[in-house]
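F.,

This is the one I mentioned.
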């Protein structure tokens, strides 16, 4: 299958700079999003990414090219590939950082306006308990962090992530009816409705597969770790082995969901 080209924009006021941290879990790398109107001298930066000085300088250079300064930094969730540079970034920009346990907590439904761009904070837990998305109503764009990716599907990071919360968050995202998803990894999504429906169907199908594996003997494999391994070997047999650690996390979350669901 041919990998689609990575796009670095989700609209004229929403641009990503790709961090140099590609890998099985980060795809092309982490997308650092720069949000700002050409008529403003301020921008918002979402997820400065890993602690890589060249990447941070590239974001600074891009911002300077806009004739702007960083007025605010937002974090979608606490994973290091999105937040490792946050402290260094705050030091070199002087801008406050909010999200993922840093700065003033983000509030669900909170309205922000910086750099001529309006954002609404949406609590969208599932991948992690602190995952948030940012809706830009004037741009018809939703920044999703790792809740929705530009390729493939996301991980539910047990025990912090939660399958039930993930499904609820997908429904909330779908209800917005946005035109574009700007993900934390991978290319921009131009058909959010189709992708969100696929994400929901895929998650429910995986739950059915996990239950079938349990019914077929995986439940009797031994202790919890043995059960998880038996499920992974059956349900994720077609998935590359280098992402099996992530599959194990998701299976643990799936098992917790199935046990709690009548």
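My design for it:
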């Amino acid at each position: 299958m041919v990998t689609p080209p990575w796009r670095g924009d989700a609209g004229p006021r929403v641009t990503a700079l790709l961090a140099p941290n590609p890998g099985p879990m980060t795809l092309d790398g982490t997308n650092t999003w720069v949000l700002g109107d050409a008529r403003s001298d301020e921008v918002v930066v979402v997820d400065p990414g890993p602690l890589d000085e060249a990447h941070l300088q590239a974001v600074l250079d891009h911002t300077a090219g806009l004739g702007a300064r960083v007025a605010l930094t937002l974090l979608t969730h606490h994973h290091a590939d999105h937040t490792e540079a946050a402290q260094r970034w705050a030091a070199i920009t002087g801008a406050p950082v909010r999200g993922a346990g840093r700065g003033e907590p983000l509030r669900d439904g909170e309205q922000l306006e910086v750099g001529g761009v309006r954002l609404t904070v949406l609590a969208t837990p599932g991948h992690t308990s602190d995952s948030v998305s940012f809706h830009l109503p004037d741009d018809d764009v939703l920044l999703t962090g790792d809740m929705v990716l530009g390729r493939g599907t996301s991980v539910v990071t047990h025990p912090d992530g939660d399958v039930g919360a993930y499904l609820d968050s997908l429904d909330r995202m779908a209800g917005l009816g946005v035109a574009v998803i700007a993900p934390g990894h991978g290319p921009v999504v131009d058909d959010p409705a189709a992708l969100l429906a696929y994400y929901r169907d895929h998650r429910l199908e995986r739950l059915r597969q996990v239950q079938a594996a349990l019914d077929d003997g995986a439940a009797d494999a031994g202790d919890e770790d043995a059960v998880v391994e038996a499920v992974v070997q059956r349900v994720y047999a077609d998935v590359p082995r280098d992402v099996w650690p992530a599959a194990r996390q998701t299976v643990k979350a799936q098992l917790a969901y199935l046990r709690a669901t009548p």
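The first strand starts at residue 9 and ends at 11.

Talk soon.
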